[in-house]
Amino acid sequence: MKFYCFILVAAFVFSGCFYSGGKDEQHSTGTMAEAPDMHTSQIALDWDGVYFGVLPCASCEGTETTLEIHADHTFGLSRTYLGKDVEPFLSHGTFEWDSSGSKIIIDEGNDFTTIYFVGEGFLLQLDMDGQRIDGSLADKYRLIKQAE
Q1: Which residues pair with 123 in a beta bridge?
Q2: Quick one: signal sequence residues (predicted)?
Q3: According to the CATH classification, is domain 41-145 in 2.40.128.640?
Q4: pLDDT tens digits along 81-93
């Protein structure tokens, strides 16, 4: 009798192994939901902090820009127009991530937004459509993360 119980238990164990193999095949064929890619700037990078750079300016020597972004999706922005006798432009508010998790959209108010690609240790200002700026000044639209 004990021998028959042993055979019965062994049969259940082996059938369970074969059955779980069938489940693995379902995962490999894509019939189950795929896991999302977790390698976005929003998830994978230490992005909050202070960024600084002098960005190109059509009507001045450059725009000295300091952008501080926080983990709670708030920001502080200071722009000083070099070569002009004007006060710095200060703005603060909230920002959001785009659906790809690689760009932030800064709402500066008055229907004016700025979009930045978030990289490791830098922000790259993008055009109004969220595309990289091209041309001879393209590499000048970069803000570098400052050491804390």
Answers
A1: 118, 143
A2: 1-20
A3: yes
A4: 999 988 999 999 9
